[in-house]
Amino acid sequence: MTSRTDVAAMIDHTLLKPEATPADVDALVAEAKELGVLAICVSPSMLPVTDPGELVVATVVGFPSGQVKPEIKAAEAKQAVADGAAEVDMVINIGQAVAGDFDGLEADIRGVVEASGDAVVKVIIESAALTDEQIVEACRRSEAAGAGFVKTSTGFHPAGGASAHAVSLMRETVGDRLGVKASGGIRTAEAAEEMIAAGASRLGLSGSKAILESL
User: Fold this and answer.
1) Does the active-site annotation cover 33?
2) Which keywords are on file for this protein (predicted)?
3) Quick one: fold of 4-213?
4) Looking at 73, 78, 89, 108, which residue is catalytic?
5) Which one of 36, 120, 163, 182 is most buried, counting C-beta atoms within 10 A?
6) For residue 171, what pLDDT is reported?
7) Looking at residue 1, what is its pLDDT?
8) How many angstroms separate the CA atoms of 204 and 126, rounded?
9) Would you call 209 a catalytic residue per the annotation?
10) Could you tell me which of 134, 197, 146 has the C-alpha nearest to residue 171?
11) pTM
12) Which residues contact 44 (CB under 8 A, 6 or more apart)?
């Protein structure tokens, strides 16, 4: 069993509901500090975050569909970093992956990586909507484009969220060169531990408190 402290150090405590308010973000930050998690992840409109303290601040770009012009994604990333984001979780154009346009997909990712400067880019591939072959190629292209992480899911796609199979495949593809973030539908300590065992180095959780309390 993974220790509570070890799991907390992997968590992006997440609030991406469209109806979230600034007060909700303040509550998220307070809870994140109390839980001792690594990071918070909020919508770009909620930046800059008031008094994040030691917390890493992450945001999302092209969220949740990924079907945004590359120059808009890059501009969104640049603005997010200017507003205090240290990490940028970008959604790929999932249709490009499905259609096999991996050159276009890589260029899209590279544009965000370049616009993000020193910020870490996590590439959300929406693994539940892709075949194993598409997952592998999306991970390869993320690495080639300079990303720091690959990430399973937005948590908003009807195909579903993270699976241990996808995490394992992603880890196998990127080795120890990139991080792997599992997110989407991880609601129990057992599910979190399953993702870590499969190779996840980061967890995107909205129910962090309940998961940590049950460890």
Assistant:
1) no
2) Cytoplasm, Lyase, Schiff base
3) TIM Barrel (3.20.20)
4) 89
5) 182
6) 98
7) 73
8) 13
9) no
10) 197
11) 0.98
12) 59, 60, 61, 76, 79, 80, 83, 85
